[in-house]
Specification:
Layout (H helix, E strand, L loop, with lengths): L3 H11 L4 E5 L9 H15 L3 E7 L17 E5 L7 H7 L1 H15 L3 E6 L5 H12 L3 E5 L9 H20 L2 E4 L2 H11 L6 E3 L19 E5 L8 H14 L4 E5 L5 H10 L6 E5 L6 H5 L4 E3 L14 H8 L4 E4 L14 E4 L2 H13 L1 H14 L5 H10 L5
Parallel strand pairs: 1-2, 1-4, 2-3, 4-5, 5-6, 6-7, 8-9, 8-11, 9-10, 11-12, 12-13
Helix pairs in contact: 2-14, 4-5, 5-6, 8-12
């Protein structure tokens, strides 16, 4: 058998390198899953020998800062942006300057394509698609978040206007990338995009970050990520008292921050759970593998909403790379990510959540076997493969 390193070297040698212009709104030092995704993608593109230029707004970010290592060969251009300290406003006002800069640079550099990531709330993709059309090169739009939460009043009018703009943007793009079939259907039905212009390519994970030995704590349950209502962590808090009655040494570790954090801390105190729960808050991304590799269970979304339906959070792929069994609410994760009773459990109530966590804590061998299945299943989501598929879309764009 040819070693993986040799196979990958031959692949890189034979791959036609390209000049890619990447246009995104969310970019370091902004934090969040979407920023992790774009950083991993451009780093892998550069590693493959492609010339990468990133255009992103020059924003005043006041939140937790994400400061990853970015390949030194990647050129980053930050454009002046109105309302730079008001992120939601800047998201809608960044388009003009980003487009102008893309056309200016594009006329000099002669890029092969423009790559962008779509989000319903900002207009960076509009700038990318319009610039690509003017430069007469393909535009590839990757969609992670496809739909809005329901809204009322003036905000609902704003949403309709934005949806009209986004529909035009997506229909004018050369090719659309979605993470699963359900998102593809949303793009077709909500934005009137032609199905033949859509390819299913999921997010990826840097598996190499998790290739080290770490002794597992068979009683540790971990959640990693932003703590928003959609994650359903209040549901986990409801389950914890009954879990620790059966497994007193159970330890729940929460990594990250978000709108729900203070509420969760308050619930912990009110229910006298401080001895079993640790809120570690925001941690640097490079510390995540160390903090989840020794866990026994990874907690995915526990509430089904429009936002979490069949989504693929990066943290879930990281749990799998760390060989953890998964537990998530029915309908939140794609079918090839969580297979019930194979690499974890699908739950539909607090009682089920309590039962399945307790089962795995009391049966470490079962948890270990499920974790090994997760590790096997995640291999197809390695960034090497995913980025190769993204670049191959250039041929269809």
């Amino acid at each position: 058998m040819i070693p993986y390193e040799v196979t990958f070297f031959l692949f890189l040698k034979n791959l036609k390198t390209m000049k890619v212009l990447v246009m995104v709104f969310h970019f370091p030092p902004i934090s969040g899953g979407g920023v992790v995704v774009i950083t991993d993608i451009i780093n892998k593109m550069a590693e493959m020998g492609n010339e990468i230029t990133v255009i992103t707004p020059d924003l005043e970010w006041k939140g937790e800062k994400f400061q990853p290592t970015i390949n030194s060969k990647i050129k980053i251009v930050r454009t002046d942006t109105p309302s730079r300290s008001k992120i939601k406003v800047a998201a809608r006002r960044c388009q003009s300057n980003m487009k102008k800069k893309a056309i200016e640079i594009g006329n000099e550099e002669k890029f092969d394509l423009i790559f962008t990531i779509f989000h319903p709330f900002h207009l960076a993709p509009k700038a990318a698609v319009e610039a690509a059309n003017e430069l007469k090169i393909p535009s590839i739009v990757k969609i992670d978040d496809a739909i809005y939460e329901k809204s009322k009043g003036v905000k609902s009018i704003q949403r309709r206007i934005e949806k009209m703009i986004n529909s035009k943007t997506l229909k004018n793009a050369s090719h659309i990338l979605v993470s699963n079939k359900q998102t593809s259907e949303i793009i077709v039905n909500e934005y009137n995009v032609t199905p033949k212009n859509i390819s299913i390519i999921p997010n990826g994970v840097d598996i190499s970050l998790f290739n080290f030995e770490k002794t597992k704590n068979p009683k540790k349950i971990v959640f990693s990520g932003a703590m928003y209502f959609h994650r359903g962590l209040d549901i986990l808090m409801d389950a914890i008292p009954n879990i620790i009655k059966k497994v007193p040494e159970a330890r729940f570790v929460f990594l990250g921050s978000g709108d729900e954090l203070e509420k969760l801390k308050k619930l912990s105190v009110e229910n006298q759970l401080e001895n079993n729960i640790e809120f570690k808050g925001w941690i640097n991304r490079e510390e995540i593998p160390e903090n989840i590799m020794n866990a026994a269970i990874g907690i995915g979304p526990l509430r089904l909403t429009d936002v979490t339906s069949r989504a693929l959070p990066i943290k879930v792929l990281e749990y799998m790379a760390a060989a953890l069994p998964l537990i998530a609410q029915k309908g939140t994760l794609p079918d090839d990510i969580l297979i019930n009773e194979k690499n974890g459990f699908v739950i539909d109530s607090v009682n089920e959540l309590t039962e399945k966590i307790t089962l795995l804590l009391l049966d470490p061998k079962k948890a270990d076997n499920m974790g090994k299945e997760s590790k096997k299943m995640v291999q197809k989501f390695a960034w090497d493969k995913i980025v190769k598929d993204i670049l191959n879309c250039h041929k269809n764009a």
